[in-house]
């Protein structure tokens, strides 16, 4: 794994452009800010059998005080959803921080190094760009310059940034607990980063950790 490729995963585009995620190199920045391809109308809910099914829901118990539930979308990003479920069930995300939180933009976490440079020991994923938009609450996979470099890091959108559509793989959306995402410590990195106390699949019935952990 190329450790350095994730060291500057996200920056805001300045000079009058709307903020957007961009990579370290100018070519990658141009790619990330490109106008997304036309999309077919998108259903607000996941298909029957997925929507509300606890096997397809991720729970993040945050140090900000509560549980965030994310509806996963295996219909749109099956490999990414399988990766998230695997890592959650391994306990990989437990204790990891949100190392980059930009107010009005997004909160990024899932890095065991806590600085944007790391990932899991599993192979990187091929992109699964889809029609799910980067609206508030959307959960998308972070990556480096290559479209096929997502691994374990992800970000939660605080406000819409549709310029990211079809450049990053959206694999779910927050369906409850967004107020706990909004409470995250802001910074790049934050002085006192907010943490994932526990990540679990809702079907596994893992109780929330005791307060204060």
Automatic annotation (TrEMBL):
It comes from the Bacteria. Residues 1-29 form the signal peptide. One of its GO terms (biological process) is protein folding. SUPFAM superfamilies: Cyclophilin-like. It is an enzyme of class 5 (isomerase). It holds the Pfam family Pro_isomerase. This is Peptidyl-prolyl cis-trans isomerase. The lineage of its organism: Bacteria, Pseudomonadati, Pseudomonadota, Alphaproteobacteria, Sphingomonadales.
């Amino acid at each position: 794994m190329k450790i350095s490729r994730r060291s500057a995963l996200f920056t805001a585009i300045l000079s009058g452009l709307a903020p957007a995620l961009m990579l370290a190199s100018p070519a990658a920045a141009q790619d990330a800010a490109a106008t997304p391809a036309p999309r077919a109308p998108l259903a607000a809910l996941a298909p029957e059998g997925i929507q509300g099914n606890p096997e397809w829901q991720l729970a993040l118990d945050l140090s900000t005080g509560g549980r965030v539930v994310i509806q996963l979308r295996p219909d749109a990003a099956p490999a990414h959803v399988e990766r998230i479920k695997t890592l959650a069930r391994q306990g990989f995300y437990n204790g990891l921080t949100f190392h980059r939180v930009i107010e009005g933009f997004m909160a990024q976490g899932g890095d065991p190094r806590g600085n944007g440079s790391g990932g899991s020991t599993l192979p990187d994923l091929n992109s699964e760009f889809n029609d799910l938009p980067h609206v508030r609450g959307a959960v998308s996979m972070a990556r480096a310059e290559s479209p096929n470099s997502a691994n374990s890091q992800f970000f939660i959108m605080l406000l819409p940034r549709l310029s990211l559509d079809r450049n990053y793989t959206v694999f779910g959306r927050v369906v409850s607990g967004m107020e706990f995402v909004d409470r995250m410590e802001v910074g790049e990195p934050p002085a006192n980063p907010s943490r994932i106390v526990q990540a679990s699949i809702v079907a596994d019935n893992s109780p929330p950790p005791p307060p204060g952990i």
